[in-house]
Amino acid sequence: MRSYTVCCVVAVFLCIALGVVGVVSGFPVSLDIADLESRDGVISSTITVLNNATDPISQRYLGAYLLPLGTGSNRSIFVGWVALPYLRTDESVTVPFTGVVPSGTVGGTYQFAVLVTTSNDLVSPNFADAAKEEVSIQGGSGSATEATAFPGITRTKKAPNMPNYQITAISALPPMSLHPGTRITPSVSVVNTGGDAEEGTPVSIMLLLGNQVLFPEKATIPSIAADKSATVQLSYKVPDDIYLGAYILRGFVNPYGMIPEGGEDDNVYIVPGSYFISDNWAEEKIAAGGCGCSS
Hints:
This protein is mostly beta strands. 11% of the residues lie in helices and 40% in strands. The protein has 2 helices and 22 strands. It has helices spanning 2-26, 281-287; strands spanning 29-39, 42-51, 61-68, 77-83, 92-100, 108-117, 131-137, 165-171, 177-178, 183-184, 187-192, 203-209, 212-213, 215-218, 220-221, 229-233, 235-237, 245-247, 249-253, 268-270, 275-277, 293-294. A hairpin with a 2-residue loop joins strand 12 (203-209) and strand 13 (212-213). The N and C termini lie far apart (47 Å). The model is unreliable at 1-26, 142-149, 151-156 and 290-295 (pLDDT under 50).
């Protein structure tokens, strides 16, 4: 019995220690928010991510949120995400972030919060170690049918030998009703009409319903060589708190300009038809079997 107790104590100690080490080795980062601005429903900022860990950071995302003041950190408004590149110890990357205030957001003063996490943790993040800065926003339009174009990024220098990514097709669902929390798994085709891309650099593919960014589950593709194309099945989740109504579905390749491109005016692809967010769960579950989505 004594040896069993000792083993239990050791096991608990190891679990706690490993848990702490896991957090420390995977997420110790320095996050610096600069040039934060909100104008006409668009939030822009420059965010620097420095890896302070002893281990590299890989397959991580930078998530951006709005936290209402005085309501606690459990209520958050998802603004957008960035797929971070591989970062060795003491390496950093600067992200020129631009996001649209989701429809229906009430204007006022918020905390703009950013954190590094996995794609799954973007849905329910822990803001204890997030970098935060106050920002005043005018609020979303409240119209579920709004399809304002996502602002383009033009902060990177252009050169003839840079890659130029374009989405040529998104095999998403046929125009139909979805419900909050739906998972969609579209097949996305991308071509590189420019120069060779740096190998090993992931290319982000963002999906939006109107101005509402979908949570990424599998939302990056490998780099593509010059004059080559690739088709990859990706996965996204519709936010649980999305407003009911009609939306346009859009794809956005390299949305934050993480990869310098020869041109960024052709990064948006609009899927034909409209998508209806409804609360008819029974109908959705019946239709889910053959539409590429699941509850």
